[in-house]
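ok here's the first one, seq then struct tokens
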Amino acid sequence: MDGTLIDTEPHWMAAEIALVEEHGGVWTPSDAAAMVGSSMSVSAALLQSRGVRLEVDQIAHQLNTAVGAAVAAGVPWRPGALELLRALHAAGVPQALVTSSFGVLAAPFAQTVGLFDVVVAGDDVTRPKPDPEPYLTAARLLGVDVRACVAFEDSATGLASAVSSGARVVAVDSHVTIDPPAGVSRVGSLARVDLPTIERVAAGETLDLRRSV
């Protein structure tokens, strides 16, 4: 969700900076960028190390509240994301939203969009990304073999989760530059992705869509 489908990373970064500064610490944009894709428990531990004197659930509440308020002002879609979701839905392709964000953010977003068959949020699993559990759970709930799935991710943590699950994976360039492992396709924007492209990835091709296909 965050960074891949909607451009919420600036909202997360702003919320983290505000929270750390509220407790007298310093949190830079590079610190925030290093946390892209991390689970809430990992993020909270890093924030605590910078002086945030709150429990994990309190940190989660403050960050989710701040980001939720920002998203409520208007869904900041990444280029091509909504169009691709609609095309997949029209073609009858089952879709799962697999995110490190908690359900308090993921569920309202998914309900508003109305195109996902399954939602797996960060607090829905015991072992969040980079563990494969989120993607394995999504495939199980969809009733499909995870090896027949194509996952889109924009962070090293998300890529590790998707790759280790056995899914075919596409790395989407976003707020952080990632170097995907062998066998992972790459795209500069979801605006470059269509149904035939996804079929090629699902069939086993590794594509670099930063160049002409």
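and now the second one, same deal
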Amino acid sequence: MFSMRAVRRSIGTVLLAGVFASPASAAPIITKTYSYFQIGGKTAEDLDKELEKRGPLTRTTGHRHPGATEIKFGGEVTYVERANRCTVGAARVTLRTHIVLPRWINRRRADADLGMIWDTLSADIKRHEERHAEIARTHARILERQLLDLSTPSSCDSLEKKVADATRDLLEAHDREQMRFDQVESKNFDERMTRLLKYRMKRD
């Protein structure tokens, strides 16, 4: 007697942020998209105020930010039941990241100094959000490998619990790493911007 069943389990959404199909050895399905919000302003102080006013509001902090990365994990796990044993037949993790970045509508009319400041700041915002997406990609790959490597218990109900536990632990580790990254970046912001501006002035 041979039977196979697929159980869909929602992994969740993260903002900054299992359902799992064959083949079993395939890499996670990862997509990345972008959108932009416009800001005005003619001085550095204006830009700062505009970013605070118009930047994306994140649920994790309850505040607006110069940029944000929405992270959605999902996927599908297939459980194969045979001879009173249950195995993971296939596991596929999906990851969707959506990066929100600022676009300054007055950039072309800005003087050289303010333009350089904006170019430096906007490049750093993009780098920061791309790193959030990279952290998520790393954890998606780790999760898929962990699910495929799970040991075979005596029942599919037991294996489903192992899948749920592994998914929860991995997503909690993902969230902690994202928070650590933000803390380090925030602490070093002023020093980093000063260094980047000096580099651009020498280069230009």
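notes on #2: The chain has a mean pLDDT of 83. Residues 2-203 form one domain.
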